[in-house]
Specification:
By secondary structure, this protein is of the alpha+beta class. The protein contains nine helices and 35 strands. It comes from Pelotomaculum propionicicum.
């Protein structure tokens, strides 16, 4: 019995611990494709042989062996934990002895929550499967708080669809990093791992660790899963988005793209928190904010190519940028940026330059032909309430600004040009009052060359509540008061004549989140229960959730006729947007992006945005996902 126990201990030590007598000594039983991987992990002391000249590549790996190998590969420990007494295996397990060769590794694994432990059983001598190895490696990256930038494809394995969501995500992670990638359409998740296979997996893991970067938890508003700081691959249904262009989205603070043609999901940032992605006119560049001030949601402006190359921070801008302060030209790869000291032009490749010097410039808009910009300037005044704004246009090729009008004792928020470029739309903010603006402002229209603007109607100045048709019509949400669940209706405006047509709401509802179809013939919008003027908030989360559940997707003709719900789209709908061919609608629901046929049918989930739900209340009921997603349609 003693001899048997001695031989077992000897073999166990040889499996894991380095043996000084035969470093770089080749084994005589590893004539296989894995020989280079075996030699690599052997030289690093991660795996050793079963005898002085035997590696036993076809033997199965058990949990004890994998635990020790992961601890050495990732340099895992529990040094940051404080214990009243020295930890022992019995603190965690009923089946691990003290002072056995894998005792400490089992505790490190346990305290780092790497293995799936149930009923205080470590199961040290149970063979490890591929699915278990994938999860253990993904959890080890999480324990080290490491992120890996990689092109991400959801693996097309037919035998993983019945696994848990976590197991599928873990397999996607090791697939995309190249740590565990198998040919064919099967992963074989229940197949046991051999020693040769583990050597290959660990050597690939070492190569991945060499390019990994510290992961940062996403900031406010991005709803990260703080219990799992590793950046897990997004759950993407590439088939649902096929031939729908490209989608930029932010998940756990990181920027990704989904290519509807190839199905490729690419991670473009590896740390920090990205905000407000914006596509260039040709879809080859993305601009975004890399947030440094979490409360103000401001930070440096960054640019990156669609393929992830040439990522760089824009230099020489006088201040940090914030949301809705930068816009791509509709005809070229150049950004216009509104800064307090004027308007700046930022080419995708080249140096930024200030186009015009001004004060108090916070709003701007490109002309449809990309040749001009409209912007506001705040005139100096000793009394802040008496400040006046001036509306200017300027050619981006240079020249003098053209003054279009002055707004006495009021602020100007430029929002858009007419689709034919013959006029401008802007909100008028009396006394530059943020409080007054929050309860609604007048939307004005100015034909270029005229001196008198036209008041169209009033509403809340949310860019997501304005939609322009190619024919020159404006679709918008009208109605004052900052609360979303009362007094909100849709109207269409003929910009040439200035005439406004109010559209009737479905009974008992408000109408919000409007979107013109590409040909201007139909309207997608969201209805929600009208709660009236007396409701200014919700005392319980369940009350807010109940109101959100009344948000449904509707379609109607642009003349207001034919209004009907797309009931299959579900409840809690936000921000519908049309596909370029007018056949599909992309929208947000249940913290995920969905797509549905414009004439109805079964919706499909494209991707989940966050591991957890975001803020449903927003600004008195207004929530926008424009800061975390952008859709490019060529």
């Amino acid at each position: 019995m003693k001899r048997a126990l001695f031989m077992f201990l000897l073999v166990s030590i040889l499996l894991i611990a380095p043996y000084a007598g035969f470093a770089r000594t080749p084994f005589d039983d590893i004539q296989s494709q894995a020989s280079a991987d075996i030699e690599a992990v052997y030289e690093k002391g991660i795996m050793i042989g079963t005898a002085s000249n035997k590696f036993s590549p076809d033997e199965f790996v058990d949990r004890a062996q994998l635990a020790v190998c992961l601890v050495k590969t990732f340099d895992l420990n529990y040094d940051d934990l404080k214990f009243v007494k020295a930890p022992v295996p019995s603190d965690l397990y009923d089946d691990v002895e003290d002072n056995i060769w894998y005792s400490k590794a089992s505790m490190i694994i346990g305290y780092n929550k790497i293995f799936n432990i149930a009923d205080r059983k470590f199961r040290p001598h149970e063979a490890v499967t591929r699915a278990e190895a994938a999860s253990a490696i993904a959890d080890s990256f999480a324990a080290k708080k490491l992120s890996v930038i990689t092109t991400m494809m959801w693996p097309d394995y037919l035998d993983t669809t019945n696994l848990s969501q976590k197991q599928q995500s873990d397999i996607s992670f090791v697939f995309n990093t190249g740590i565990m990638r198998y040919t064919g359409n099967e992963f074989k998740p229940d197949e046991k791992i051999t020693r040769a296979e583990l050597a290959t997996i660990l050597n690939r893991t070492l190569k991945t660790l060499a390019v990994a970067t510290p992961a940062q938890e996403a900031g406010p508003g991005s709803s990260p899963d703080s219990s799992n700081p590793i950046i897990t691959p997004p759950d993407v249904n590439t088939a649902a988005f096929k031939d729908q262009g490209a989608l930029a989205f932010i998940r756990q603070g990181l920027l990704y793209t989904l290519d509807g043609e190839t199905g490729e999901v690419k991670q473009l940032t590896g740390s920090g928190r990205a905000l407000q992605p914006a596509w260039s006119h040709d879809g080859q560049w993305l601009a975004f904010i890399r947030v440094t001030d979490q409360e103000a949601n401001t930070g440096p402006l960054w640019l990156v190519r669609r393929d992830g190359s040439q990522a760089h921070q824009v230099q020489d801008l006088p201040q940090l940028v914030s949301r809705e302060r930068f816009y791509w030209s509709p005809t070229g790869n150049v950004l216009a940026v509104a800064m307090p000291d004027g308007v700046w032009l930022v080419p995708a490749e080249g140096e930024p330059r200030r186009l015009v010097k001004s004060e108090g410039t916070f709003h701007l808009a490109w002309s449809p032909d990309g040749k001009s910009l409209a912007y506001n300037v705040t005139l100096p005044s000793e009394e802040p309430q008496n400040r006046s704004d001036v509306l200017y246009t300027i050619s981006v090729d240079g020249g003098q600004p053209v003054q279009r009008l002055v707004a006495p004792q009021a602020g100007i928020q430029v929002t858009a040009w007419w689709p034919d470029g013959k006029g401008l739309l802007y909100w008028l903010d009396p006394l530059h009052s943020a409080s007054l603006a929050a309860d609604g402002m007048g939307l004005w229209s100015l034909r270029l060359g005229d001196t008198e603007p036209t008041l169209l109607t009033s509403g809340l100045a949310h860019r997501g509540w304005l939609s322009l048709s190619p024919q020159g019509s404006l679709l918008m949400v009208t109605g004052g008061w900052r609360i979303v669940w009362a007094r909100k209706s849709l109207a269409t405006v003929d910009l040439e004549s200035g005439s406004v047509q109010e559209l009737n709401n479905p009974e008992g509802s408000v109408a919000i989140d409007p979107s013109f179809s590409p040909d201007g013939s139909r309207i997608a919008f969201v209805t929600a229960k009208n709660l009236g003027d007396d409701v200014w908030g919700f005392s319980k989360p369940e009350e807010l959730a109940a109101w959100v559940a009344t948000r449904t997707l509707w379609i109607r003709n642009s003349d207001g006729s034919g209004a009907h719900p797309l009931t299959d789209a579900g409840a809690g709908v936000y921000q519908p947007a049309w596909s370029k061919d007018g056949e599909h609608i992309l929208y947000v629901r249940d913290n995920a992006i969905w797509i549905i046929g414009a004439d109805g049918g079964q919706p499909e989930k494209v991707l989940g945005l966050f591991p957890k739900g975001g803020d449903l209340f927003g600004f008195y009921g207004y929530s926008s996902y424009q800061g975390i997603m952008a859709w490019y349609q060529p």
